[in-house]
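Below is one such protein, fold included:
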Amino acid sequence: MRPEDRVGTVLHLSRSSGNLILKVENEPRIGDTVLDHTGKKMGKVFDLFGPVSSPYLAVRPSVSQPEQYLGKALFLRKRRK
């Protein structure tokens, strides 16, 4: 995957919601598809939160074991224009 498509690195898994929490590197839109390093779909952007200068992102995983992504980089699927 290309560095410009990188959305961030997974910091932790929320116990209450099951969402993956990332520090944003390239700002996505809610509903964007999130991919792993191989290009496999692993979830969708659920929420952006935190300070505008340093936002965080919640990804709703669509995989059975989201904890496997802890500490790994995730990427955005290219948007159609």
